[in-house]
Amino acid sequence: MHGTTTTIPAAMVDSPIRLRRDVYDALVAERGATTVAEQAKLTGIPERTLYRIRRGEAVSITSAMRLAGVLDVRLTALFERIKEDAR
Q1: Where is the HTH cro/C1-type domain (predicted)?
Q2: Which of 10, 40, 54, 78 would bridge 47 by S-S if both were Cys, CB 3.0 to 4.6 A apart?
């Protein structure tokens, strides 16, 4: 993962998280991955999973950490915690 260690913030461990799409889109575009197929190749995450993540569906911590690691950002920069009343 590009030599960085990704730690999981305690607040995110037991809480659902959602992709910050604007941040994600900017980061993958910087790397030339503008289609979901290119993003899947870049991240090693299947296209179907990326579509689900982009729709705001549940994200496994493994996929979240992989995205953050490949894009070389903190997990909290790429994902936001979903508040209980927003579900």
Answers
A1: 40-78
A2: 40
